[in-house]
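Usage example:
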Amino acid sequence: MSTADTWILTAQCPSRLGTVDVVTRFLKENHCYITELNSFDDRLACHFFIRAEFRPENEGFDSERFQDEFAPRAAEFDMTFELTPPGRRTPVVIMVSRTDHCLNDLLYRYRTGQLPIDVRAVISNHPDLEPLAAWHRIPYHHCPITPETKPQQEAEVWRIIEETGAELVILARYMQVLSPGMSARLSGWAINIHHSLLPGFKGAKPYHQAYEKGVKLVGATAHYINDDLDEGPIITQGVEAVDHSHYPEDLVAKGRDIERQTLARAIDYHLQRRVFLHARRTVVFAGS
Amino acid sequence: MSTADTWILTAQCPSRLGTVDVVTRFLKENHCYITELNSFDDRLACHFFIRAEFRPENEGFDSERFQDEFAPRAAEFDMTFELTPPGRRTPVVIMVSRTDHCLNDLLYRYRTGQLPIDVRAVISNHPDLEPLAAWHRIPYHHCPITPETKPQQEAEVWRIIEETGAELVILARYMQVLSPGMSARLSGWAINIHHSLLPGFKGAKPYHQAYEKGVKLVGATAHYINDDLDEGPIITQGVEAVDHSHYPEDLVAKGRDIERQTLARAIDYHLQRRVFLHARRTVVFAGS
Amino acid sequence: MSTADTWILTAQCPSRLGTVDVVTRFLKENHCYITELNSFDDRLACHFFIRAEFRPENEGFDSERFQDEFAPRAAEFDMTFELTPPGRRTPVVIMVSRTDHCLNDLLYRYRTGQLPIDVRAVISNHPDLEPLAAWHRIPYHHCPITPETKPQQEAEVWRIIEETGAELVILARYMQVLSPGMSARLSGWAINIHHSLLPGFKGAKPYHQAYEKGVKLVGATAHYINDDLDEGPIITQGVEAVDHSHYPEDLVAKGRDIERQTLARAIDYHLQRRVFLHARRTVVFAGS
Amino acid sequence: MSTADTWILTAQCPSRLGTVDVVTRFLKENHCYITELNSFDDRLACHFFIRAEFRPENEGFDSERFQDEFAPRAAEFDMTFELTPPGRRTPVVIMVSRTDHCLNDLLYRYRTGQLPIDVRAVISNHPDLEPLAAWHRIPYHHCPITPETKPQQEAEVWRIIEETGAELVILARYMQVLSPGMSARLSGWAINIHHSLLPGFKGAKPYHQAYEKGVKLVGATAHYINDDLDEGPIITQGVEAVDHSHYPEDLVAKGRDIERQTLARAIDYHLQRRVFLHARRTVVFAGS
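Running the assembly step on the lines above writes:
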């Protein structure tokens, strides 16, 4: 696990001999001690991913200079990289509708420091959850939406996201389908949570369909938003057993517990830079 | 858990006052001590299910007479019922193709008595698994199949099933789609196992599709055969975590372990009369 | 799952022919439709447990009369029983110290109605969690404790519990060892949560000991208080995987998530009258 | 996951700047493409662990030369290392007593290639499992033991292990306590499986003790043998839910399923060189 003095370097590039070496050699030369390292080469996609946690051994580690000097070496490999400082709280915006199970969980983890986030705003198409945000002293923006006002509402939402400087948007049970334009803008840096059922069900009232089918498991999937809502790249999934005594409303309740845990875990992975997005899949260095 | 001296009485009928009482009073009157009882009323289907394990307190329990005397009382409630004696090994036929992970697991549980089954025959459309059956001294029927010979092959398979007196048919990775006629014949007393993926995938090479999607869970579903192959009433489901390092062949391997466990669990539930089939759903009194 | 119109009848007694019948016949005679029934006979303890959810079919169900009339029949079996009305919110007192992961979770479930409890008071030996209680408009009693003042403090705590009319006391990470007298008073109607590690560790800093040992799982146990603190009858247990990268503080954090889920589940079982206490063990009709 | 052409290099040493670089630079210089890399620095133990899967890009990879040339570089870091070729089947000896659930599972995985092992011998203090070994054409050595003959028996067992050239000894429910001398000889390269219960129980009949306590989970631990039997360094642990209806014999049966799965997983990790032993703990790069 990362600590107060560990930086994180993440990078990805096409597969080629030397992809690890270009990273690890540079860290060594800069007196950075690697405390945890994971790399993976996707042999089907021919793409390489690496994540290093490290501790600078010299005082006065200069991150600007580090990046400037690493950039040309990375460029040789067509490598994109990101350097994340220790102890940083990522500015986020949380979007919700009326159900608060995910919001309450996230705000608890925010308040107690379990998730290193700085919640800049809560945006909702309903006024219901304002008191919860208020108790945590977080600005709450009520942005109602109708089919007619959707463009304006999304513009307003976007304005708020931009103003807050959010680097991550969390859709914590925001029950509106984003427009293609909005999805495109949020692609890769917004995380959504939705139910996952075996077998999968399309259309309305999925839990009712699952009940009709007599499923014995219900689950949830946390994924990045991309242009294919509810079908974006999967970050993590959770599941729990149910039985015949679970009526549709019980399945929904069960689903809520899984949703909030799965969403929190996805955000944790994202903030720790454990998730890499490539094409339509993710690489997640979940543990160790 | 049932023991060497416990009988099982199962029954179901439309919901109506007295459904429990008609069963429990009769058991009391016949000096049968109930060691475990579960009943459930499905308020949406308006249907009632009950399972009782009991121990006759008088010697010389006469099961024929028990059933004869209970029948008219059950009839008043349009109740169907079944009485299962202790220590009985259910005659089964196992159908396979070439992969043996489920067959090996089932034969192990058969050999060690973990599953109270009497495996009367193994039927396969390939000769590969004959030695495994032979070591367990079980007749192995090689029934090859082509699109042209399907009717004859199914007739032959059916003949074997009938001759063995099988009361349960287990499709332990039998990779042929049954004809509607065969499915109808096996409806409700044949158990199949197949992969379950989140989200669901239709068509060929499901694990490859799941890989493309980057799923983080793979699972398996055990279900009764009905007229809708791979979509019959679910008995139980299993699931395990995977990650980006699982290539399609790794997902398949992972799936195998889940399949054999899930199939064995389904059969165990079925044999213990814990599974009730009603319309397109099951009620499963899994524990306690 | 129980609904707005289902009552719950629970009972236990020594094993004897007719234990089920005495309950189910009475329900039938009183026009009570059983929607869910579980009974279990512990053949080693020779003790019988039964739980019935039922819906009175006649209007004006008189619970007083029901109990008065059932009492003599139960007495014939040395049977103790309890009748629980639908929709009741059980008055509870929550005891905490400084960590709030369990309290926050319980208050969320209280606020949203997921747990049918009426939190009458929060008692703590520290002032830290007062704001959290205040936001939920729950009286917070700061009862500091020292070895010298323990008798007085426990007397004060007991006075508050009595005044509130609490029927359940929840020790949600209350980090004080109760005196034998206090434990005796709370025996069987107070639920505690504590860590569970494989193998078990005694003494201080259990997570540090677990780290030293390199455990791969950490867990939590929810149990009733009895005269043997941390060793009372187990209601439910939870567990999660960890690895070498979890330092002691990470194990503690992981433990917190399991603790709050396990505690909430135990309370849910208790309130639904799914837990029976007999000698030093519990019978829990967890599902269906 | 490793494939037919990937080698594995594992190493460990005291923590010091450059530990990663010395490995990754050497691989690069030798035209070895790293397909998967994990390193971890234990900041409490001040010890470093690394595992690299790699694919030589030049034909005619010379492993002898590779090791000879890497040795002096490793020596500078007091680093021990091991190079494992692709596709190798590790010679193993399996020790059992009378229960066959683990042996049957291991032989199945051996036969189907799921575990890359070459089972050279099965050793037992009982004759019971000879037919199972015979069907797999594996020599079976019956080495009976009494308190008096223990030294001679262990000498005989040791002779067989040595003669077979086994590199891993698997105690698959071998129900004898090894002598300190035998434990010392097997320290670090023999894997044992035993039950794990929450809370832990010492002494005889642990499942009976667990039953008395009313545990809701039972588990198993796979660990290396060292001088402290049943308490050696943990490799992996498994767990499953149980309830009041599980009598001691049911807990034992449940335990068996967990034991065989947990043992197989531990062996898989070991063979893939994912397990590092340091002092009394392990580092396990389980996934990715």
